[in-house]
Design brief:
By secondary structure, the protein is mostly helical. The protein is built from four helices and no strands. It has a domain of 71 residues. The longest helix has 35 residues.
């Protein structure tokens, strides 16, 4: 997947290719535009992605507030849970984490074995 992405960029921009005028012009504006013109598409893609990331960062408190208010919308349980129920819940959580972590370890070990056999 990454090879196709790199090939797409390599087809549009060669990092070792020379510009038509290899020496940048004098003046700050002309100097900056000289380099931006060489990879205009990549610059615009970067500009859009940074803008999207900035909007997502700015909206993060809104989403956190929505998640924090979710428990308030749920009616409280009318009865108290006994210690035996809480203990059972903790044991179930511990068993789930143990099974999950051992499954992850087995999957990682299997993938390491597969990587070693590719040659």
């Amino acid at each position: 997947m990454f090879n196709s992405l790199i090939a797409w960029f390599d087809a549009r921009y060669s990092p070792v290719g020379l510009a038509a005028h290899p020496h940048p012009p004098m003046g700050l504006r002309k100097f900056v535009l000289y380099f931006v013109d060489q990879f205009r598409t990549a610059f615009l893609i970067r500009l859009v992605l940074v803008a999207i990331g900035s909007v997502a960062d700015a909206m993060m408190p809104i989403f956190v507030g929505l998640v924090a208010r979710l428990p308030a919308a749920v009616a409280p349980v009318p009865h108290r849970r006994g210690a035996a129920t809480v203990r059972a819940d903790l044991l179930n959580a511990a068993a789930t984490m143990t099974v999950s972590s051992s499954a992850v370890r087995r999957a990682l070990a299997a993938s390491e074995l597969d990587d070693g056999q590719d040659g």
